[in-house]
Design a protein that fits this description.
alpha/beta; five-stranded mixed barrel; 27% helix
Length: 299
């Protein structure tokens, strides 16, 4: 289970003043929680999908015992799915490691530095909605109020490798987002964050597309019939984190946008991995940093 390991004297190292990282929480009485559980089993129906049983209580059992005052991050952050590109970039640009988020499989460093004169947190998150959200939820509760995620996507229609795509909405074909938002088929992304991403790409002189993305957590279940159905709904790309991270951010009161770049393609009968978009990693990271520095913070 993920826990923060804080490197001492964060403020002394980074020069960042501590900022509020938690919001007041109204504790529900036991009878209120019982009423909600009874509502899930209204008229004795117990065979509904568990994912439809959304609980809006912000207090979970695990992190209620965590001291969220141990770490204060700047209000802007970039969440990457870029592998070795991110720690290399952080080292090359003078970012300082301020914390480690340990999980059962590996630790995820959090770096802090400046980009275009703005304090920014930077961290690599794991692949897939559940794991990525475990790490992201931590940093949303430790000060990040506006986040831009950056990673690859698969093309459901023809895209050349390495094209930039900014999602405007995500189809919620994963399980994690339903623990952060009531059930719905789509989640719309923050329009101001979409604008921050598209304007950063425009200003850097690159072309981009805006798109509806299909977020799935079953990489090996992207069947031809499902691909065809998603295309008919208007999805032009597929990813594995967007809808979950967007839902988590909204639940924690943060703003969220995402920059994708096309890697593999599923537009033809044969899956073509190409080079997984690796040539776009460094450029995509810089664009995400450019975007988050201009992102509006929640009021």
């Amino acid at each position: 289970m993920a826990r923060f390991t804080v490197i001492p004297e964060v403020s002394a190292v980074t020069g960042i003043n501590p900022i509020p990282t938690t919001r007041p929480v109204t504790e529900r009485r036991p009878e209120q929680r019982l009423t909600r559980r009874q509502a899930w089993q209204h008229d004795g129906v117990t065979d509904v999908l568990p994912l439809t049983e959304f609980d809006d209580d912000p207090v979970d059992v695990i992190t209620s015992a965590v001291d969220h005052s141990l770490l204060s991050l700047p209000p802007r952050g970039v969440l990457t799915l870029l592998g070795a590109t991110t720690p290399t970039w952080a080292a090359d640009h003078g970012f300082t490691t301020v914390a480690q988020i340990p999980t059962i499989t590996m630790d995820f460093p959090v770096w802090v530095g400046q980009h275009r004169g703005v304090d920014v947190a930077l961290l690599e998150v794991p692949l897939g909605a559940p794991a990525a959200t475990i790490v992201a939820d931590h940093v949303f509760r430790h000060g990040i109020r506006a986040a831009v995620a950056v990673g690859s996507c698969g093309g459901l229609v023809h895209f050349d490798e390495g094209e930039f795509v900014v999602p405007t909405r995500a189809l919620r074909d994963e399980g994690t987002s339903f623990h952060y938002r009531p059930p719905s088929r789509w989640i719309e992304l923050d329009e101001d964050m979409v604008h921050a991403c598209t304007s950063a790409i425009d200003d850097a002189g690159f072309a981009h597309a805006t798109a509806s993305t299909w977020t799935t957590d079953a990489f090996f279940r992207e069947t031809r019939s499902k691909i065809d159905a998603r295309q008919q709904e208007g999805c032009t790309v597929v990813d594995m984190e967007c809808s979950a991270l967007a839902a988590c951010a909204r639940f924690r009161g943060a703003r969220y946008g995402q920059i994708l770049f096309t890697a593999d393609t599923l537009a033809s009968e044969v899956h073509d991995v190409r080079d997984w978009g690796r040539a776009s990693h460094s450029t995509a990271l810089r664009l995400a940093l450019d975007a988050v520095t201009r992102a509006p913070l929640p009021s």
